[in-house]
Structure formats: C-alpha cells, structure tokens
C-alpha cells in the first residue's frame, strides 16, 4: 500500500510520500536511542510542562488538524474535532497524574520484615524506545493514548502509522517537538509494513504496541516473541449490545445508533451485534432501524453529515461481501444494504436481522455502519450469543435488573462491561480486551505501567 493521502470522499490522491530507506531508518533508531538516554533522566515536572504545552498547541490547531484527519480517512468533521479535543484531554490527564501513578510503592511492613530486609520498595522505571504500530480509524487518539503515558514514563516513541494517514502522523511528531520534547523523543517513521520487522528486531527497540487487525497483531507478536520483547495488542472487536426487558427502550435504541455508527462504523469498540430479548425485540428493532435510516450520509466536511465514506475502497468491498453473504443465507435487510451511486467509498447505515451461525458476519468483524440483530429468549441465551465470537474487546448491557447485571459482569467475556450506556475510552479507565481482541491494557495506571521496568529494590537488615 503506498504511503499517501487519498481522499475517501472522492477517491482522489492528494499527496504521496517516499518510504524511508535503510540508511534513514538506522539514523532514526540511533536518534531514538540517544534521546532515551537523556529523556529518562528528566523529571516528571519537566515532562508534564511539555505535555501540557502539547495539549495547548493541539487545542490551537484543532480545526486544521481535524480537516486533515477527515481528508485522510473520512470521519465527519465534527467527530474529528472531538477526537483532537479528547487527545488534548488525555495529554493533560497524564501530565497531572503520571508522577503519582509511577510513585515508589512500599510493601507492607510485615512482609518487609519477613523477607529479612530493613526496607524495600517497588520502583517503575522506563524501558526505552517503544515501537507503536497504529491504525487509521482514530489516527490521532490511537497514537496519543500510547504516546502520552509512554513519554511521561520516560520512554521514547517510534510511530509506524497506517499508510493512508501520513499527514496526521507527521503532525504528531511536529506537535511534540514544538511542545519542547527533545529531538528523537517521538518520531514518525514513514515505512511500509514490510519494514516493521527490521525495526522491531533492532536491539535498541525494547517493546511494541499495536492496534489493528488480528493478522497484523499475530505478526508483531510473533516477531516480538522471538526477540523476547514486551507487546501490548488491541485487535478487532465484535462487541455485543444487549437489551433486556427492563431497559429504557427509547434511550437504548437512540444510543445504539451512535454506538454502531461512530467513526462511520469503523471502530473496534463500536457495538456491532445487537442482542435483544424477545419481549422487546420488535419494538427495539423498529426504533433502531428507523434511527439508522434517518442518518445523513454525505460530505464529511459538512457539519450536518452523520456518516462519511469508509476509509478505503477495499474496506467497503469487504463490508459489502459480508452483507451479501448474510442476505444470500437468509438475513433480512431492515434498512440500507445497497451501495449508493456516487463518487467515494460510501456505504449506508444497514441493519440485518435473522443472523445465523453459518453467515460470515456472525463470526467476522463488520468494519463499517452495518448492525446485526439477534432475538434471544432469556438471560442465558443472551450471554451465550454474546460470547459466541472469537473477540472480547468490550460489551454493552441495558438492564435495570440487579440479578441480570451481576450475571453479565460475571460471565461476559470482554475487557469491559458498559451498563446503560455505550463503550467509550477514558484516560482514567483501563482499556483492552481478551480472546482474539488482544492482551495488555492501555490508559489509566495499567497502561502507563505496561512499558515500565517494575523493579524490586531490597535492602538487607
């Protein structure tokens, strides 16, 4: 895939970039290694000053960088602005909290004495340069939720971004440099996927994080495993959205629409499978399909647009194949389902009912504004259908029944359970999944500690 900005609303190639050669990659790795040796000695106060400055600059640049993101991957402009604002918020959160999250920990006095020590502590120390392989769907947020904690912990970052968002990737490097981080603390590597292995195997690179597809995650994990290097993976998702009879149905249907089509439906944590108790299925399906059908598909630069184009022509083709397979196997189309006759890679909000296990969409992630509806008879069936997927990123549950809630929290196989609301990431809460959705956590204290050397310091009596 060429490294280029291709406007998905028109299909027009706007700007192309040459991939870095071997000599330049080597130079960048040397710069990162040198930067780490210096950056790791800076104080939390110094890092926080720069991170807060980055947040201020990002706020100033919000409208311009939002237009870049929308041009590169097609999200509605209002969502692009919100993404930039969220990134600034996360930068400020880690600037404020990193020192406390990584403060020395003192074991219980009885355990210290039992170990034969006069004193002991646990200290969080940085690892070194960390490679981040990031996707195009949230081209800024995915990077910042890694970069802010990594830099605040004393690590440095090497970004291999998706090849269709090069301008956003270069902006992030420039932003952090303008904020005062030294040269090499954060670098964007314009390289293809074929060059990732060379960078990851370099001994100066100590760890890697990847958000993306399952095949990409397997590849990075295999290389890192061979090199015995730490990885954090956030891969696909096919999140359930469960609606029980006690739910506030109007509100659940309204939120369901947003939960499915956020970011043009191209989100790992978007609700994709809507599992509805038979007692409220028909009423929910009617409200949900009507809400999906009412969304405006159009130019993502226009404020009133709800759904822009999918990011790539290949992505739309793959989504169409899933829908056609399901319809061919008997699924009912409640709305959408047909590509519009217009330039760009648009696909309408679509709701499919009557899903069965023999349909590909039952097991594969639909990365676009396509929702699947399941009718279930009771709580047990709701849990069984929700867990009948290779993924386990997050989940959404709508109920006011305490017994049902306890059961969902206990038995849903996912990294998150969001009750009477939709899944959303926040700097204070850990984010990540289980099963084929990956491992490790981002955000919160768990995320910042993933790329730390957790060091026991023991002093004899």
Automatic annotation (TrEMBL):
Iron recorded as keyword: no
CDD domains assigned: ALDH_SSADH1_GabD1 (cd07100)
Family statement drawn from the similarity comment of this UniProt entry: Belongs to the aldehyde dehydrogenase family.
Keyword field contains NADP: yes
Location of the Aldehyde dehydrogenase domain: 3-457
Protein name: NADP-dependent succinic semialdehyde dehydrogenase
Coiled coil start-end: none
Record keywords: NADP, Oxidoreductase
